[in-house]
Amino acid sequence: MSGSAPETLRRREEDEETGIDLRRYLDLLLRHWKLIAATVVVVAGAAMVKTYLTPPVYRAAAIISIEREKLALEDLGIGEGMFTVRDPDFIPTQIRMIQGRDVIEAVVNARDEAATAGKGPDAEEARDAQVSQMIRAITAQLEVTGVPGTSLIEVAYKSGSPKEAAEVANAVVDGFVTWSRRSRVEQAGQVSKFLASQIEQLKKDVQEKERKLAEFGRSRDIVSMDPGTNVSMQKLETFNKDYAAAVADRVNKETRYEQLLATSPETIADQDPAVIAARAEKQKLEREYAEKLSVWKPDFPAMKQLKERILKSQTYIESASKEAAGREREKARVELESARKREEVIRGVLRSQTSETLGQNVNAVEFANLRVESAASRTLLETMLKKQAEMEVAARMSGMRQPTARVVERATKPEYRFYPSYRQNLQKGLVLGLFLGAAFVLLIDFLDRSVRTQDQVEKFLLLPALGVIPAVGTGSGRAYGYGYGYRRKRKAAGAAANGTSASDGGRPAGEGAVELIPHTNPRSVVTEAYRAFRALLLLSRAGGVKSLVVTSAVPGEGKTTTALNLAVTLAQLGRRVILLDADLHKPRIHAILGLSNRKGLVSVLAEGAKLEDVLQTTPVPNLWVVPAGPLTPNPSGLLSSDAMGQLFKELLAAFDYVVFDSPPVLPVADALLLGSITDGVVVTVLGGKTSREVVAKARTKLQRANVKILGVLINNLRVASGSFAGYGSYAKYEYGYGYGAADEAEAPAEAGQKS
Predict the structure, then answer these.
(1) What is the distance between the alpha carbons of residues 190 and 391, in angstroms, rounded to a whole number?
(2) Higher pLDDT, 490 or 662
(3) DSSP code, position 516
């Protein structure tokens, strides 16, 4: 048993609450596993073909080591040795530098990939555009990542050529090492060059002023002159000292400004609170990213979002650093301008005092002035020399602090492709194929307009649903469809349709014992389904149903089988039941049951035969059958005759239940004629095959004829496992009804005509 009835009922109620029948969809997918498997094979094959046809991409990687900043303890005056400076933004900063335009442009120039055809502005502009395009192309395929837990950086390049991938990766690391060394030297040399030029100029100035002072003393026979004896001379001496201090201050401010211009914004902004907070936040995000990287892949949405936050943080740090550096540089510029203005003011006062003193004592003042100017120049020279010495120490310390880059592992030509990967694409193809196959099956099911459920019968067709007969499978050489099965050879079937057999001299033809499921297997799932159908049918009309017609919209929907098995279940109630084969176009009941068809319903209606002359017994107790009899050219005329009315009265008087097997509704009008005299009709539909539109046309035709529709029976429906729990298992069926065609198996041998 597939499960207990209460459990099954509970699950069905849950499905109804959610509005989704999961078991039906699972069963649907399992029934169409071949289609899904074919889709998987096709998609996976297409993925492999695409992988084969896609140009391969190779990846080559080089490793560089960048030593962190170091300081000499003796330079700081706290001991001897070296210590490493801890900077959380060290590696990200170096990665950004490697990806910078200066390094990539050096790679482009080193590979000599930029054409230099012609001269002039137009040629230079074309070359610049070409270089920019190459830089963008290299940057797009360049991957620079830090190795977690180390100071190593991996520089990888992807290309369609393995040789090019290795060459570009090596060119990038070589270019970065060269650029790093050059920038370190240039940064320290800019300030030193400025100071050297200033000192050289001061040396010349001091020499010239001392020379003038000596010549003036010799020409005037002046050996010494005490400036303290003259008030004007004292003032002049004071102003000269102030002027020398102002000049020295201006030089210091100018030196600091030049130093700030030569220093990178990141170094200037080391003490900015906003930059410090942003770097701390970025370090936190990077730690979080590194921790999650061990669990999630980089292309996971959450990891992508985290990576975007890190990049935004880095962008903010760069912007904040530039703003902080700009503020510091602007402050230094303002201080320099102030020092220059102060120097100019003091120079003006000095000139005024010099003129005043000169009027008093020309020689003395001039000599004193020359002496003061000479002393001031020498003081300024000594200040500049001291500043130069300090800058040399700072440059030496900065050189030690600058990171040193070296190549640890050079890139080699890759042997295998990096993309596309056969393995990865096969996995993706299998998953995508499985998804598409399932989606295709569900789409087909969604677009299917056939009748599959009782809810569809009541919702879309607005008709009572009388039950579902599940599809069953093949076993022990019998094909069970619609509740019972039969197999017959075409020759034997033709003889059966004629009512004779060559082997028995007129004995009814057939295959012997025919298995009627409700009779031979009363505990099967099909039997239970027919009993449920019987119960609903008998309750479908007030006062009960005594006579009915079993029909269908079109041929091949199992109406004959339904009529037979319904008659069997009614007979099992202990009531007298008669089954009449009223399908005078394509009669079948005699062939199925192995009965003679020489006399039947046609004999009574057309030839005046008695009911007892055509009545035949069956293996089922309380069940009698009237076959169709010989073919007639006017079936509808016979069914609408007075003889049919008289016969129907006799049947109601003699039997408890009268069941007619009639032709389909849409091809002929026989079912309408029979339905008008009975309690109603039962419309049989082939589950999952008959469209709702076809059934709706049959319904309309019956309603226009004022025929009572008792309900719809869904036949041979494939249902989800567990829907008929407790009744056993069922599987595939085999059944056919070629109504209206020239069927050799069922046409009378001597008929020579089509109905």
Answers:
(1) 11
(2) 662
(3) B
Collapsing DSSP to helix, strand or coil, 77 comes out as: coil
Beta strands in 587-702 (DSSP E): 616-617, 623-626, 657-661, 681-686
Pairing of strands 465-470, 709-717: parallel
What's the pLDDT tens digit per position in 632-688? 888 999 999 999 999 999 999 999 999 999 999 999 999 999 999 999 999 999 888
Instruction: Kindly give the pairing relationship between strand 478-479 and strand 474-475.
Output: antiparallel
Measured distance CA(551)–CA(669) in Å, rounded? 11
Q: Which residue has the tokens 């330079």?
A: 75
For the chain, domain boundaries: 21-51+430-447, 454-467+530-717
**Residue 581 gets which letter from DSSP?**
E
Cα 475 from Cα 731, distance rounded (Å) = 9
Joined tokens for residue 209 = 């002023």
pLDDT tier at 367, thresholds 50, 70, 90: low
Rounded to two decimals, the pTM is 0.47
Cα–Cα separations (whole angstroms), residue 406 to 64, 82, 100, 151: 6, 20, 18, 11
Q: How do strand 404-409 and strand 577-581 relate by DSSP bridges?
A: unpaired
Distance CA 303, CA 533 (A): 59
Helices (H), 89-161: 90-98, 101-111, 121-140
Sign of CA dihedral 260, 261, 264, 268: positive
Terminal C-alpha separation, the chain: 47
**Number of residues in the chain:** 755
Most confident of 109-113, 348-352, 717-721, 738-742: 348-352
Q: What is the rounded CA–CA span in Å between residue 273 and residue 16?
A: 63
Are 692 and 456 in contact, with CB atoms under 8 Å apart? yes
Angle at 540 between CA 534 and CA 541, to 5 degrees: 125
Query: Rounded CA gap, 587 and 498, in Å?
Result: 10
What is the DSSP secondary structure assignment for residue 450, as one 8-state letter? B
Per-residue burial over 613-646, b = 16 or more CB atoms within 10 Å of its CB, e = otherwise? ebbbebebebbbbbbbbbbbeebbebbbeeebee
CA distances from 479 to 31, 536, 592, 607, 744 (A): 19, 27, 13, 38, 20
CATH 3.40.50.300 is the classification of domain 454-467+530-717: yes
Question: Which long-range contacts does 635-640 make (Cβ < 8 Å, 24+ apart)?
Answer: 635/584, 635/585, 635/663, 635/668, 635/670, 635/755, 636/668, 636/669, 636/670, 636/673, 638/584, 638/601, 638/602, 638/605, 638/606, 639/582, 639/584, 639/605, 639/670, 639/673, 639/674, 640/673
CA distance 146 to 153: 4
